[in-house]
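Can't attach files on this board, so I'm pasting raw text. These are the components:
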Amino acid sequence: MSMTVPSQLDRRIAVAALLKDRKNTLVVSGLGSPTYDLHATGDRDDNFYLWGAMGGAALIGLGLAQAQPGKRVLALTGDGEQLMGLGGIATIGVARPRNLDIVVIDNQHFGETGMQASHTGRGVDLTAIAVACGFVATVTVRTIEEVQRLATDIAEPADGPRLFVIKVRAENPPRSLPSRDAVFIKNRFRAHLGFATA
Amino acid sequence: MHSPKPNPEIDWPSELYRVLKAADVRQMSYVPDAGHSQLIRMFSADADVATNVLTTEEEGIAIAAGAWLGGQRSVLLMQSSGVGNCINMLSLSAIGRFPLLMLVTMRGEWAEFNPWQVPMSRATQPSLEAIGLKVMRAETAEDLIETVESAATLAYESDQQIAVLIGQRLIGKKKW
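---
Top answer:
Structure tokens for the assembled complex are below.
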């Protein structure tokens, strides 16, 4: 497998462009930078931020998408987080939710732990894995224009799960920290959907 | 000491299905076990329940949390060997106080023919308790039905994280 060319795209600019017109999409963010990226676009009741449970973001998205078939669900995660949940791509492919998208903010590194190179910079292609697991649409983007186009496309209905990779520069922007109180974030999220909180 | 004998007259998988439906369970995920096969068939045939086959048991912990965020109750089925795969993901249920109901069929403890099942069997209850789950255990069909009923209330009404261990003696010897 060959090395993948690094991207120069700024992750915060990319995530802001992706979520600019998100409307009522429910968003689950994977631990580390994607959680900070999501919070940096504005704290919202319909965000669920992970600070742990590595590999779980897309699968929390699956349970949520199955419970809320009338709403779009987006799992916003990183390459390291999704690599730990590779089997989940097969599970989601089989479940075939029509309202779940996975967006991997891929800096090709484990950014929280010292920027060690991950598999995606060494030729492992998450979109190819998703295609092999039956995802109905995938794309890898590297420029802000492509992210803006993706933001428009992602608003369209789908026949099954989709996985998109946004290649970004390997850097750690200033942290934008949401609450680490998972009970509070959970209850706020459920209250937003009209459910009892205890 | 008198030890209770399994009662083969009781169709406990059907009773568990009834109990879980009465508790309004809407999602079920599983890594198969022979002991769960009838319950898996019944849920898979139920159009009102989303059923997910998993590649590894920890996926079901995340799915259950997502289901709860979206207002639905979920149950997770596995055998004892799968408990070891779940440990870090159980942080999510523990720290988020997400309702969790896991039904775990035990291997490696009663008339077991496969020695590879024994170490994780021994580690099942201590490792679940170490990460903060409440462990309940049943050895007879009557007790199992009542235990799952009680566990469902604790999980879904009191936001608890519960594993019900189903004794291998109840499931019976694996046909080989």
